[in-house]
Amino acid sequence: MSERMPGRTPSALPPSTLTATLFSAVRDVLVQSLRVCRELFVVMVPVVLAVKLLQELGAVPYLAMPLRPLMALVGLPPEMGLVWAAAMLNTIYSAIIVFLALGIGLTQAQVTVLAVLILVAHNLPVELGIARRSGARLGFQFCVRFFGALVLGLAVNALYSAFGALQGPATVLYAATPPAAAAAPGLWTWALGEAWKLLAIAGIITALMALMRLLSALGAIILMNRLLRPVLGLIGIGPAAASLTVAGLTLGVTYGAGLILHEARSGRVDKRDVFFALTLMGLCHSLIEDTLLMALLGAQLSGILWARLVFALLATALLVKGAARLSPRLADRLLWSPLPRTPQH
Fold first, then answer.
1. CB distance 115 to 303 below 8 Å
2. Rounded-to-integer distance, Cα 323 and Cα 132, Å
3. What's the pLDDT tens digit per position in 10-47?
4. In this structure, what are the phi and psi dihedrals at residue 90, rounded to the nearest 5 degrees?
5. Between 20 and 30 A from 179 (CA), which of 52, 126, 228, 309?
């Protein structure tokens, strides 16, 4: 045990050391956020220009048409199909940009349903690729993400409709109007507004990164890990994969699946646990960052956090029971595939 100095708490630091630590933390957050913004804006700016062009040509309803019946099922305008398509093909931020560019007002319930669709099924080319490299069958994982999003969207919409809940207009915090926009005409108004939105997103990214660093320093991530780990055991995910799954739930698929892939190839985690962990992470991940992003669009925590988490846990528990009834050969064919082992030194 360490000795305590009289009149000084163990956590106290000299002012110069504290200042240097804070400066280093702020610098790291700014550098990281600038790097992320640069990568995102390379994608976002062309998306903004493309959406504007499509609006001017009147082509948005036609492009959203393939998803129109599905949007009607979950109580959304057909144009929201374009927003969900942007999310599935790219990142959540791209979907946010398309949503803001369309400028269609939604109720709180509708924004929450849209957010549920986006949160469950987004960035599929990247995230499904990670799942496949980690041993999960690509086709099954796609079905889980796509149809899982629809089922949860239907359930959330039905629940809100049955109780008449959240029928007021949603408040979109991204959509702050730039000071000079009111006096600026035409195309200049649009360009200034879009630049303002991108600037707001850059600020939000920086704030989220700072928040995640603070929560980690305060031990909130560790606390969440402790709360979730017993629940994962109850639904059938083994202890070897539980802590790694919690990392994905809190920090995201890319991070969590990367850990899972490393452990699976080492042979320390059974392929069944790998599959169930990846499925759970696919349905519900990045509980802090992604949830906050959707809340800024006006979505409610009852749908984007609690309903999403409960749905993911229940769906995975049912999958665990269903997979136990399959023959090993059929399970290998439909659900998971063997991974090459990483040589142990």
1. yes
2. 18
3. 445 566 676 777 777 788 878 877 877 776 677 667 87
4. -140, -145
5. 52
Name residue, tokens 């528990």.
Answer: 317
pTM: 0.78
CB burial readout 32-54, b (16+ within 10 A) else e: ebeebbeebbeebeebbeebeeb
Which structure tokens are listed for 102?
């369309």
Write the pLDDT tens digit of every residue in 52-104. 787 778 777 777 788 889 999 999 999 999 999 988 987 898 888 889 888 88
- How many Å apart are CA 249 and CA 277, to the nearest integer? 10
Distance CA 156, CA 304 (A): 10
Sign of CA dihedral 9, 15, 21, 22: positive
Burial 143-164 (b: 16+ CB within 10 A, else e): ebbbebbbebbbbbbebbeeee
Structural domain spans, the chain: 34-334
Cβ count within 10 A of residue 327:
8
Token pair listed for 159 = 């629940």
Q: Which of 185, 271, 206 is nearest to 198 (CA)?
A: 206
Which residues, listed in sequence order, are joined to residue 336 by a DSSP beta bridge?
136
d(CA 317, CA 311): 10
- Give the whole-angstrom CA distance, residue 129 versus residue 123: 10
3-state secondary structure of 130: helix
- pLDDT (tens digit per residue) in 107-163: 999 999 999 999 999 988 878 887 887 778 889 999 999 999 999 999 999 999 999
In the structure encoding, which two tokens stand for residue 138, read together? 């690509």
Among the listed residues 84, 52, 92, the one whose alpha carbon sits nearest the alpha carbon of residue 68: 84
List of residues 6+ apart from 302 with CB closer than 8 A:
112
